[in-house]
Amino acid sequence: MHWIDWTIIAVYLVWIVWDGIRLTKKSHELEGYFLASRSLPWWAVGLSVMATQLSAITMIGTTGQGYADGMRFLQFYYALPIAMIVLSVTLVPFFHNAKVYTAYEYLEKRFDAKTRAFTSLLFLLSRSMSLGVVISAPAVVLSVVMGISVTNTVLLTALPTAVYTMFGGVQAVTWTDVKQMVLIVAGLVAAFVVLLLALPDQVTIPQALRIAGTTGRLQTFDFRFDLTNQYTFWSGTIAALFLFCSYFGTDQSQVQRYLTTKSIDEARSSLLMSAYWKIPLQALVLLVGVFMFLFYLFTPGPMLFNQVHDRELRDGPRAGDYAALERRFEEASTARRAAAIEMAEAESARDPSRRSAAAGALAARDSEVRAVRSDALALVRDATGDAAYNDVNYVFPTYVTTRMPVGLIGLLIAAIFAAAMSTISAELAALSTATVIDFYRRFAKPHASDAHYLRVSRAATGFWGLFASAVAVWAAELGSFIEVVNRFGSFFYGSILGVFILAVGVPRATANGAFVGLIAGMASVALAVRFTNVAFLWHNVIGAVVVVLVGIAISVVGSAFRRT
Amino acid sequence: MPNSASPPAQSRCEAPAAMPARERVSLKRARHQRAGVGPRERVMKSHYVRVVIVWVIVLAALYAFQQYFT
Q: Is the Cβ–Cβ distance between A66 and A219 less than 8 Å?
C-alpha cells in the first residue's frame, strides 16, 4: 500500500480514539456511562443502530456473497421494516416506562430473578462469541493487506475500540458510530463509483446489469417455499421477522441504543430510521459485490482470492492438481468473457434471437467457471484441512488492495475499520452493562456507590474486549462470517423472543411458565439442528413458538394446580 | 345510570362549520384524548403507515428490477 493510504488509516484510528475518549467527561455516573443520561437525539441513535448492524462482516462477507451468489441475500432483510413497527408498538414503550438499564432487567420486574439472570447469561454467552467473529472479519482483511498475523490485526482492531468504549461509555459509542456510519457509506459509494467507471467502454451500465441478471445475480425474489433454503422470500419475511424482533427487541446491544433517547417517540423514530434505510443500504452493499463480479468477468482475476492458500497450493504437494485447475479456470473465464461481450453486442444490435443465444451461452460458461472454482475450493479444503473454507470473504479485500486507486484504498480500509469498530463498541458496552447491572449489582454487590459501579463497568468492558479478541483469533479460520454469526444467534434468539412475548403479551404467564418455556424452546432448537435440515432462520420461529406454547401451558396448569 | 365520564352527545358529532377553526381543533383534540389517543400517537401511526407504504414501494421496485434485467 502507498504511504498516503497508510496515513489515512492512521489518521482515522487516532482521530476516532481521541473523539471517543473526549466524551469521558460526560460519563461520570452510571446512567451517563450506560445510557447517556437518556439524552441523545433520535437521529444519532438511529444512525448508531444502523452502524452497529452494518459491521465489517457486512462489508466483507456480504459483498463477497454479492460476487458469488448475487442479490439473493437481500431477501433476508425484507421483514426488517415490519419488525421495527412491531417493536415500536410493543416492546419500546415497556422498556422506556420501566426505566431499566438492560432488557433482561424488565424480565425480573415481570417474572423473577432467575429468568432475568438466565436470559442475560444467554446474551453474554452468544454475544461474546459472536463479537469474536465480528472482530475477526477486519482482522482477516488486514492480515491479507499487511502480511502480519491475524493475532496482531485482531489486537489492532479491538484494542482502540475497547479503549474509547471503556472511557467514553455509550456517549462515545453513539457519537463515534454516527461518524463511522458516514465514513462507511462514503466508502461503499466510492467503491461503487469506481466499479461503474471500470466497466469496458463497449458495455453500458444497463447491458452490464443484464449480463449479471443472465447469470442469476440479480435475483431478489425467490418465492419457493423451501424450509431448507436460507434465502427465500418466505424465510426473509416470516422467519427473519422473528430474528429481527428478537435482535432489535431483546438483544442488549440494540435495546441499549434506544434506551438512550429522551422519550418513547424518539426511541421509535430511531428504530424507524432503519426501517426506511436498511434495505436500500443492503442493496448497495450487494450491488458492490455484483459489480465486482462484472469487473472480474471482463478483467482476468485470480481463481482463489485468498493469496495465502494460493501460495500454499502452488508450492505444496498438490501443485500439479492446482495448475490443472488454473488452466481450466483460464479457459472457462476466457470463454465466459467472450460470451459476455457477445451478449453486450447483441444488446446493442437489439437482435432478440442473437441476444437469447448469447444469454444461453453466457449462463453455460458461467456455470463452468463456478464449477472450476468449486473444485478449487474442494482442493483447498482437502489440501489444507480447512473444512469450512469459503473464498467469498477475500473477494472485496483483494479487489480493494489490488484494483482501487491510491487514497481510496486507505479510505476503504478505514471504512472497514469503522464498520468493525462501530459494532464492537456497541457490543462491548452491552456486554459490560449486562455483566454489571444483571449480575454484579444484582447478586454480588447491590449497595455500592455509583463511582464503584463505574470502575467495575470500565473493567468489565476491558475484560470483554480481551475475551472477544481471543475468540476472534479462533473464529478467523471459520467459513463465511455472516452465516456463522447468524447461525450462532439463531440458537438463542427465538427462545429469548418467546420469553418477551410471554412477558408483554400474555398477562397470565407466570415466572415458572416463562423459565420452563425458555428451556423447552432451546431444547427444541437443538433437536431441530440435530435431526432436520431446516434452515437456521426458521430456528427463530421454532424457538419462539415453543417457548410461548409451553410457557402458556405451564402457567395455566400451575395456576389451576394452585387453585385446587 | 348514564356514565358520568362519557362525553356529551354534541361533542361526538362533527363540529358545526360555522365554529371557529381553533375551537374545531380543540374539540377534535378532546375527542382523541378521551379515546386515549394523544397527538403524538396519531403522528406515530401515520409514521407507521408511511413505513409500510415505502416498504411496499421498495419491494415492488426490487421486483421490477429483477424482472427487467433477468
A: no
